[in-house]
Amino acid sequence: xxxxxxxxxxxxxxxxxxxxxxxxxxxxxxxxxxxxxxxxxxxxxxxxxxxxxxxxxxxxxxxxxxxxxxxxxxxxxxxxxxxxxxxxxxxxxxxxxxxxxxxxxxxxxxxxxxxxxxxxxxxxxxxxxxxxxxxxxxxxxxxxxxxxxxxxxxxxxxxxxxxxxxxxxxxxxxxxxxxxxxxxxxxxxxxxxxxxxxxxxxxxxxx
Length: 207
Fold this sequence. Notes:
alpha/beta, Nucleotidyltransferase, domain 5, 8 helices, globular
């Protein structure tokens, strides 16, 4: 279970940062940033926060609601669009989303804990990459929940506009339902044209 071990290595305000949506074939990549007041964070959040992938959707949503209403928590959200993903590549677009999430915090952090093995260049504060950090750091876990819930909601809304791909269920990942939708309906403006499966469909259409 995550705890404050990584946060306690640093002084000042420490934020956790994580992303959701690097792998899907459609939709934006979304990043969350979270600063948790260690002295004031309620026990239910200390005990409940975890890697968003380990939590059921209803649990993630309930935890995000608690995070949003808790005075001991500051949250920032950032995203990079499909256009930015196609222009920059998914890694650079993820860095951009993380930048925006940190910038959207109500207070500037003194240090950032970044989930994964890459640190976005040019952050406004020093940072450390923490592999599998969403299962180790409470701040990163909070950021992961925020990013995941926000992105899933975006994909539900996009799925209403573009039915037939199953985005409410697959969040834009390349599931069988999504693949069948692409065969029937073709690509939408929300598909990542730089991703190999979508590039292949485009190249077939040009031939």
